[in-house]
Every structure is written in structure tokens, then in C-alpha cells.
């Protein structure tokens, strides 16, 4: 059963360092929340608390009306996931690692092959984990989290360090887990495009605080549409657009972007460029990405995004 999550005024300090500062949000059952923001902003601290690994200094975490603290043990069978890289015994096989978890949690051992099949590792289950690729270990981490059919799944950067092909596989796997298991998911990620695709809401972290919680589409107001030109020579195209009053800037070699302005006559702008010797290969209209809106939002909040 998917868990409803309620976090109220959650704080954690380590001496003088404030890792979390009065964080609050509410998630209905089955929701998926993406945690985004700079490194060291408090995302991992929050996930450790949600997994019952770190006790808060103050505030509360409530799952389906039941407080997690002061004793998280009764609620832990309903919560699964990992923070940082999933850890396993490298000298044991993937199947043996999961069988050990099953024994410790009194889960039927038949569950092992079920979850290995689900994350596409059944054929590699007999291999030692020490020989697994990074992506295979990430998938084994998800398999371990799914062993107890959790109502809440915590995933700390499951896409981290994956090549484009494995990144696509992980995106599909996380999306499938949400649909087929129906669990509530909280996922941190620097892959902002994946957060936009997978999550129905985001939490923007900065220096232990949550600056925004809500739909990704509403971050920073209404998403801005833009026009992208692919043109040559690029320097001349950029100069001519700016001379026409277009707030244009290069985004990569040969492409120029400008926020769409309702006052433009795009046909006249293109004709002017052509008349000044600019060759236009493509003109595309696109919505501003979550990544660009997030960077703009953090800059408006005076956050160092490095």
C-alpha cells in the first residue's frame, strides 16, 4: 500500500552546522517527488531520516498518520531504498546478497528471483557483485528495495554515473516501478530532464531549506516558450537579432535561443536576417526546460549552483 508522507518543520544539526532547517511538505499516496538543488543542500540528510537512519533534531515525519520517530522500527517494513551507492558484499553473487536480505527480513526466498527478473538481472544473478558494472549495482539496489514491496521508495541519484543507454533503462525502470508497484517515491537527482519526465512534483533545496515544493511546471511561474534558430554565420545572426531588439544568446555551436515575445512578427525577423546575408537552416519553437527554469530560480534566490 502506498504511503502518505507528511514532513513538518524537520530540522537536523550537527554541532553548529544546520543540515536541514524547518523542512515541510506533504505527499499523497502514490505521488513521486523529485529532490533537486546543489550538492550539500540537505537532500541526502532528508532521505536518511525518511529511511530511519538519522534521528531529527526537531520536527516530525508521519507515514499514513503514524509518526516515524522516536522508534522507526515498526514502520521500516513499509519503507525501502538507498542513500549514496547501494552497498553489497562484493564476494557474494547478486542472488546471494538478496537471499541474505530475505533471511534477515523474514521474506520468502522466492521473492529474490522475482525482483531480479523485474530489474533485468536474473541472468546475472549468479555472478559476484564485485564484477557488476555501476549500472548493474544500481539496479540491484532497486531490487533490494523492492524485496519487501515497500509503500515508500527512497532513491538517491539512481541515474548517477550511467551512460546514455543505461540512463534510459534506469528512467524506464523507475517509471515502471511507480506504475506497477503503486508506491510513493522520493528521488534525488541531478538529471533534471528525468525529474521533469518522472516526477509530478519537485522540492528545490538550498542550504538545508526547501525553497519550493510543487509541480515542476509551476516553478518560477508560467514556463516560457522560446525560439531556436540554427543559422550561419552565427556571429552575424546573433548581432542582427540583437539589433532587431531580440534578446538572443547562443546555446551551442550554430544555434541561438531567444524567449518568445508576443510582439514579434517572426516572418519579418527571418526575412530581415536573410536580407542581411544570414543563412537560416531551421527555426523551432520550444518550451523552456525545467533545468533552465531551475537555474534561473536558484540564481534569483542568490544560490551558488556550482
From TrEMBL:
Q: Which Pfam families match?
A: ABC_tran
InterPro entries named among the record's database cross-references: AAA+_ATPase, ABC_transporter-like_ATP-bd, ABC_transporter-like_CS, P-loop_NTPase
Which SMART domains does this one have? AAA
Q: Which keywords, in A-to-Z order, does the entry hold? A: ATP-binding, Nucleotide-binding, Transport
A Gene Ontology molecular function term for this protein is: ATP binding
Give the UniProt family note.
Answer: Belongs to the ABC transporter superfamily.
Any idea what this protein is called? ABC transporter ATP-binding protein
What is the source species? Sulfobacillus harzensis
Amino acid at each position: 500500500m502506498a504511503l502518505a508522507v507528511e514532513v513538518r518543520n524537520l530540522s537536523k544539526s550537527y554541532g553548529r552546522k544546520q543540515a536541514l532547517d524547518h523542512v515541510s511538505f506533504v505527499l499523497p499516496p502514490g505521488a513521486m517527488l523529485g529532490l533537486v538543488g546543489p550538492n550539500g543542500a540537505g537532500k541526502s540528510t532528508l532521505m536518511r531520516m525518511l529511511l530511519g537512519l538519522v534521528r531529527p533534531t526537531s520536527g516530525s515525519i508521519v507515514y499514513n498518520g503514524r509518526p516515524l520517530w522516536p522508534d522507526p522500527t515498526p514502520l521500516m517494513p513499509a519503507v525501502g531504498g538507498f542513500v549514496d551507492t547501494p552497498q553489497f558484499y562484493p564476494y557474494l553473487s547478486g542472488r546471494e546478497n538478496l537471499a541474505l536480505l530475505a533471511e534477515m527480513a523474514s521474506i520468502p526466498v522466492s521473492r529474490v528471483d522475482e525482483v531480479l527478473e523485474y530489474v533485468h538481472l536474473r541472468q546475472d544473478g549468479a555472478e559476484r557483485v564485485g564484477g557488476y558494472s555501476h549500472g548493474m549495482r544500481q539496479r540491484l539496489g532497486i531490487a533490494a528495495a523492492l524485496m519487501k514491496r515497500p509503500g515508500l521508495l527512497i532513491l538517491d541519484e539512481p541515474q548517477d554515473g550511467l551512460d546514455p543507454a543505461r540512463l534510459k533503462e534506469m528512467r524506464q525502470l523507475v517509471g515502471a516501478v511507480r506504475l506497477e508497484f503503486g508506491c510513493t517515491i522520493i528521488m534525488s537527482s541531478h538529471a533534471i530532464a528525468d525529474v521533469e519526465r518522472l516526477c509530478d512534483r519537485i522540492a528545490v533545496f538550498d542550504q538545508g531549506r526547501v525553497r519550493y515544493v510543487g509541480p515542476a511546471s509551476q516553478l518560477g511561474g508560467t514556463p516560457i516558450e522560446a525560439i531556436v534558430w540554427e543559422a550561419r554565420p552565427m556571429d552575424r545572426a546573433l548581432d542582427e537579432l540583437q539589433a532587431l531588439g531580440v534578446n538572443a544568446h547562443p546555446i551551442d555551436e550554430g544555434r541561438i535561443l531567444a524567449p518568445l515575445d508576443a510582439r514579434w512578427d517572426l516572418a519579418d525577423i527571418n526575412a530581415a536576417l536573410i536580407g542581411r546575408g544570414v543563412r537560416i537552416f531551421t527555426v523551432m519553437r520550444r518550451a523552456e526546460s525545467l533545468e533552465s527554469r531551475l537555474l534561473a530560480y536558484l540564481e534569483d534566490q542568490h544560490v551558488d549552483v556550482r
